[in-house]
Design a protein that fits this description.
Helix content is 30%, strand content 37%. The chain has 350 residues and is of the alpha+beta class.
Length: 350
């Protein structure tokens, strides 16, 4: 924020000064003489006061809740502190809102009062229309002096962040039974230290049993469906690849829906006590990143990392990369934007 001089206000003030001077010269009045002295002193007092006020003024921004849900409304707490006895009738804050993941930002000007020897507080409502990491800050504050001839700028360093996550209810319902084809046995290296299942028995399939509990290898040997009785988590893993890519004018909306569907599907698997291996392509590091999802907290942690990634345009690149980098995966669930909307499909690799 730079210092600005307002020529129109200066001209208007000089016109008033000239008028009082003329009246004093013409009438030879002590009243106009005293008024002329006051008008001569006021500019120095006004400009000096705003310089002092800029030194004392502090601005802070806080977020009472660091996590929000998609579509929800949250509040930010703005505080403008002025420990001095000076005031300003014209102070403007430049409020910046940024979604780090979607690289979208905007600036809004807020007019606030600067009270003498006090703190001005205001709750700013925010509607979170997209997933991602929201970063809120002030580019600075400008203060205009009492007579309005000069505005002084001051930079502020207050920043607060809010993570916005989808909810399971916001995801479109998908056919979860077909996704069981994307489930594979967990590798020993993945299970070590994270054995969330205890198979107490293996028995024949009974109508109503979950398809995710079927022991596919044993069923193939016996030609009948065999089911694992579990105490806790499944010893299988559901591999899910979420695509952070889209093309066209609605690319951000499509990726936002992909994230929402991914979140909802994984939440469903967590509720079914199925271990999920979430993967995504990191354009910045040019490699696949992955997280082990065994709880709602670990799901949020994974999404927090995704929000620092970059969206890329090639929507088909990861199929070939998965085949070359992870040929050991016979099948996985791919969640991507197709035909303008998010969809989930099982990809089987040769």
């Amino acid at each position: 924020m730079k210092t600005q001089i307002h020529p129109t206000r200066i001209i208007a003030y000089l016109v008033q000064y000239a008028l009082v001077f003329f009246l004093h010269w013409f009438l030879r009045s002590h009243f106009f003489l005293m008024l002329l002295v006051i008008l001569s002193v006021i500019p120095f007092l006004s400009i000096g006061a705003v310089f002092l006020l800029r030194h004392f003024l502090t601005v802070t921004l806080e977020s009472p809740e660091r996590e929000q849900t998609l579509g929800g409304i949250g509040y930010l707490k703005l505080m403008v502190r002025n420990p001095s006895w000076l005031i300003s009738f014209d102070a403007n804050l430049y409020f910046r809102t940024e979604n780090v993941f979607f690289e979208d930002s905007g600036v809004t000007r807020l007019s606030v009062p600067v009270q003498m020897h006090g703190t001005y507080e205001k709750m700013i409502p925010i509607r979170y229309s997209m997933n991602g990491l929201y970063r809120f800050s002030f580019d600075g504050i400008t203060i205009r002096d009492f007579i309005g001839v000069v505005s002084l700028g001051k930079k502020t360093s207050t920043v607060t962040e809010v993570m916005v996550y989808p909810t399971a209810e916001q995801a479109a319902r998908k056919d979860m039974s077909d996704m069981s084809r994307g489930m594979t046995e967990s590798e020993e290296t993945m299970k070590r230290g994270h054995d969330f299942s205890d198979v107490s028995d293996v028995r024949e399939y009974i109508p109503g049993d979950k398809l995710m509990s079927i022991h596919w290898k044993l069923s193939a040997k016996r030609d009948i469906l065999m089911v694992k009785d579990r105490v806790s988590m499944s010893d299988q893993q559901m591999v899910i690849l979420t695509e952070l890519s889209a093309n066209g004018e609605n690319a951000d909306d499509i990726v936002n829906e992909v994230l929402t569907v991914t979140y909802g599907i994984i939440r469903s698997f967590i509720d079914e006590q199925v271990y999920v291996r979430l993967m995504w392509w990191s354009e910045g590091r040019f490699e696949f990143d992955e997280r082990k999802i065994v709880s709602r907290d670990s799901l949020k942690e994974a999404f927090s990392d995704i929000y620092y990634e970059k969206i890329y345009k090639d929507t088909e690149k990861t199929k070939n990369l998965m085949r070359s980098i992870h040929p050991e995966l016979k099948a996985y669930v791919r969640i991507s934007g197709r035909n303008g909307e998010a969809d989930a499909e099982v990809v089987e690799q040769d």
